[in-house]
Amino acid sequence: MTTTQDTGSRSPWISIWLSPRQTIDHILATGxxxxxxxxxxxxxxxxxxxxVLGAGFLGGMAGWRVWLCFVAGSAVIGILFLYLNALxxxxxxxxxxxxxxMLELRAVLAWSAVPAILGLVIALLLNAGVRLFGxxxxxxxxxxxxxxxxxxxxxxxxxxxxxxxxxxxxxxYGFWRTIATYAVVLIxxxxxxxxxxxxxxxxYSLPSGSMSPTLLVGDNIFVSKYAYGYSxxxxxxxxxxSGRILGSExxxxxxxxxRSPKDGMTDYVKRVVGLPGDRIQMKQGRLxxxxxxxxxxxxxxxxxxxxxxGASARVxxxxxxxPNGAAHETLDCVERGFYDxxxxxxxxxxxxxxxxxxxxxxxxxxxxSAIGYIPFENLIGRVGMIYLSQAPGRNGAAxxxxxxxxxxxxx
Length: 411
Description:
Layout: H1 4-8, H2 12-15, H3 20-30, H4 36-55, H5 64-95, H6 102-111, H7 114-133, H8 146-171, H9 175-199, E1 201-205, E2 219-224, E3 255-259, E4 267-274, E5 279-283, E6 286-289, E7 292-293, E8 295-303, E9 314-321, E10 327-332, E11 345-346, E12 351-355, E13 374-375, E14 379-391, E15 400-401
Antiparallel strand pairs: 1-2, 2-14, 3-4, 3-14, 4-12, 5-6, 5-11, 6-7, 8-9, 9-10, 12-13, 14-15
Helix pairs in contact: 3-8, 4-5, 4-6, 4-7, 5-6, 5-9, 6-8, 7-8, 8-9
């Protein structure tokens, strides 16, 4: 029979593949804190790298800043999740007779990632060798050889087996209680993510350039759902609300997400320029609020495909300052656009008037038949931050991450 002393003669990096129970005994006896943070960080980096690879985003991650943010962010998340998952295991385990301490549980979670980490490293090296020496091998859509994927998959599966075996060892209970305890750890992050998405932040990806230059095609944003309180449109999966609860009206100049009042299905992102009772009009491409022209000043031309005329096209750009002092940039694609001269729009009570920053390339409140005035109830939330930005690839090429836009606060 394998004993703790027998296992102690081998490195835990090797013995965990053969005898996870005896390996955790040896680790706890000799150094339960050793390598725990490092393994938690590496485990999360490898896990998220696999997700990025499987989603086909790897080709778009260009530039050292993107990789630095990815590695550093993944490492921090891994360490935070180490403590959170250990706390969950401790709470659930204590309810069904578990005896493990937080220190022991952190060691189990960290060291169980070793097979998955080493498996991914081996798979990467094998795949690099296949490419370097030009060996013939079947490949997956992600560009990895099937042998590499099989190795990584088997190693990941053994990590799952190892955490169950080691967890049952330190908790000192049987198979089914171990399964129940670890299932809670797997489900809890999903419940947290669901709660965050339901009540706090909703992610959106911008498919059009109607808000250029503030938001570009391929920008991925978080919308703060709590900013203006909650309505049926911000909480669509809960029982239907009447009006808004905890309501707070948007300020002039806020960039908001809202549900179309025309079809009740399409979400838009625009800027609030008109409040209830305001008189809004466009004259010769200039915005008037309550019969007063909004201050604007010319800036250097914007270069990009904001008007459908090519990536190198130059477009007139302005800095516009609203009556409350909120400033933002706008684009003017053509001299006499279709909505550069309009009638006066009087914003009804309980409604708001929205404009896109790309004034000649935006369907917004100026188009009464398509969008019109937006009821307060239809607001979903305020656009807060760009968490990812990808420039669309041309001619089938992979999208490129715009690292300089990641983390920008939208104003």
